Amino acid sequence: MPRSKLLTPLLLSALLLSLPALAQDATYSVRMMTPEAAQKAALATLASCRKAGYQVAVAVVDRAGLPLVMLRDRSAGPHTPGVATDKAWTALTFKTDTGELAKVTGPGMPQSGMRSVDRVTAFGGGLMIQAGGTLYGAIGVSGAPGGDADDACAKAGIDAIQIDLEM
User: Fold this and answer.
1) What's the domain range around 155?
2) Of 32, 95, 120, 142, which is the most buried if we count CB atoms within 10 A?
3) Nearest-5° angle of CA 152, CA 82, CA 115?
């Protein structure tokens, strides 16, 4: 039998044998952050900012970029809830903390066009929430005097839930 005619039935057999494996790949499992964990992170973030004398808004989004928690301190500006949510969404969407994103999307940089995407907020205050190699979501802070201060508060929130996520 010519080689090409033998190869076709062999390839067909191999394909048919791999169908169960392909069907198993039709679903997958993911680890999700609970609303309680998101709330704990947001409250710890708010407490950290208050201790430093800042009135802020804090938002936590899940791994799909959807809001889980948003808190605004009494004197935080009216713009801060939206900015905090967009910082968290931006960090999650691009899988990059927003302070780092600011560096690579500035004027004249190859990725500067990214800043024209709706909701992209490329300045400090948006951090990814990760543990054990899993991206759980992101946290955004708006209202502290500068991105570094927003980042420090957000880090305090992540630290408050880090061990919970790693368990």
Assistant:
1) 35-166
2) 142
3) 80
